[in-house]
Write a structure and sequence with these properties.
With 171 residues, this protein is mostly helical. It has helices at residues 27-34, 37-42, 53-62, 65-77, 79-94, 98-108, 116-143, 162-168; strands spanning 5-6, 11-13, 18-20. It has a three-stranded antiparallel sheet with strand order 1-2-3, with no helix packed on it. β1 and β2 (11-13) form a beta hairpin.
């Protein structure tokens, strides 16, 4: 496996994989081209989902009910704070600050230590386990030589994100 090279702090590249940040200029191409499976087919690719709707629902259902209730109760009690945090969340997203996006989740529960375990339960099911599945399912497409994958921003972040998992797998 080659050592990753940085792309001006905007991702990394190995001999077999390029990961770069999303740019506002990508919007038209993304929504006009890549979301249309018929275009992917025309380009010679076989579009596939990285997970099924049932798997997404199962991930939600796997979050313990007590954790779901605790987090829903907190968001209901702290609705105004959550609304006030949206501009910061959006700015971190636009800045490509993925670690900052995740830290906002923890900042939101600061002062309520009882919410740390429920948030960890949520992130385990909705991010970490799904990241593993997505990374595994991307590998056959990568072996074929070309792949395009779209997923939520937090699936890209950190050592447990999909790109890091792919890199550890030799991509």
């Amino acid at each position: 496996m080659s050592t990753p090279s940085t792309d001006s702090g905007d991702g990394f590249e190995t001999e077999r994989l390029v990961v770069r940040g999303w740019h506002l200029a990508d919007v038209d191409a993304f929504f006009d081209l890549y979301r249309r499976w018929e275009v992917a087919r025309w380009l010679g690719s076989t579009p596939r989902a990285l997970e099924t709707l049932d798997e997404q629902v199962q991930a939600l259902e796997a979050v313990p009910e007590a954790s779901q209730v605790a987090l829903l109760d907190a968001i209901a009690r702290r609705h105004d704070e959550a609304q006030a945090a949206i501009p910061a969340l959006l700015q971190r997203y636009l800045d490509g600050d993925l670690a900052g996006l995740l830290s906002l989740q923890y900042d939101a529960i600061d002062g309520e230590p009882a919410l740390h375990a429920p948030l960890d339960d949520l992130l385990e099911q909705l991010l970490r386990r799904r990241n593993e599945r997505m990374a595994q399912r991307l590998q056959p497409a990568l072996r074929q030589g070309r792949a395009f994958a779209a997923m939520g921003a937090l699936h890209l972040q950190g050592a447990e994100g999909v790109p890091a998992r792919l890199q550890r797998a030799g991509w």
